[in-house]
Amino acid sequence: MRRDDVFIVHKKFITLIAAGCFLVGSGFSAHAQSPSFSVEPASKQANQVGYYQYRVGPGRTYKASFLLENGSTKSTTVTVQKLNALTSSNGGRIAYEPETKQPYSKLIDMNRAASQYIFGPANIKLQGKERKVVTYTFETPKNIKNGLIVGALGFSSPLDRTTSKLKTKVKNGELTELLINQPQRVIGIEGIYKNQPKENVLINQPTVRTTPSGPLVLPMLKNVSPIIVKHVSFNYKVLDAHGTLIFKGQSTDMEMAPSSEVYYSIPWRAKTFAPGQYRLLMQGTIDGKKFSKAFNFVVPDQTVRNYQSETGERPVAAPGIHWWVWLIGAFALGGLIVFLIFFIFIKRRKKEEEEKDSAESSLKN
């Protein structure tokens, strides 16, 4: 698997030279797309599938060897990261990260963090045109006896780094960004225990968050089981407080990492982002088994105000009027109507009395 780390720093009116945004690829295979640097499993069996897979037991040690090749005449230092398996918040394949937690995704059992069980060099020096085999060890913990431990090693070399400039027009001029693209080759390491429990995925209450690209509805999916759960997908509908459909869509077919949870990102597809009560309907399958869920959720007034203030791009409805405001308004209108009726009645009664007095006065004369 090739992973591209794109580094961006935002500062107006000057060229940028630093970074912080990650774009993660998918899959286990790790073949170079340029002749400068390549890495692959040194084992013939692992090389055929593109990653290391072991039948493991508690407290055992397994070796994983990798063939690195420098296709350039320049020397280089390869950086190696130990990675953990997380569920991607955008669906699709499992994501591999050096951390155990991302903004919308995390491990719920730290015993399943593979990075703590992989041992070997963090930096590997290669001379020009050099080929080298480097061996790492995968040491399983004594307290884990079922399911999977899934992780990976990520290899990157400055020889593959590229830069490009991106110019964007802003209110007071032009913003120039220097994008630093650092590919990373990722090779998986998977430990499979004999005892494999059944999948157990829970779907919980959604939350709402705003991002520069738009608001998100985030239902929480939790894989309680220590195994990879495949083919998780669902259709969704979002209704307003009156039961009117405001938008719908379909998730990607996704894999969930062992013992992980994720807030799946559903983009807000309505024309307006308004505060109020909403309902999320979800229907789908988990590894072929059907499920159906319904949740009520709230978009607070302040969330809408903050989003409008931060972006000013998406049309935003005015803050919602709460039920008690409508009730007060109804009472006020009712009181006004009663007052007008009473006023008209008094005025008509007074006029009738004046006409009666005038008629009696005429008769006397």
Automatic annotation (TrEMBL):
User: Which part of the chain is the WxL Interacting Protein peptidoglycan binding domain?
Assistant: 41-156
* Residue intervals passing through the bilayer: 323-346
Entry-linked InterPro entries: WxLIP_HBD (IPR021759), WxLIP_PGBD (IPR010317)
> At the top level of its lineage, which domain of life is listed?
Bacteria
User: What's the source species for this entry?
Assistant: Sporolactobacillus shoreae
Q: Signal sequence span per UniProt?
A: 1-32
Keywords on this record?
Membrane, Signal, Transmembrane, Transmembrane helix
Q: What is this protein's name?
A: DUF3324 domain-containing protein
Q: Does the keyword Signal apply?
A: yes
Q: Where is the WxL Interacting Protein host binding domain?
A: 196-307
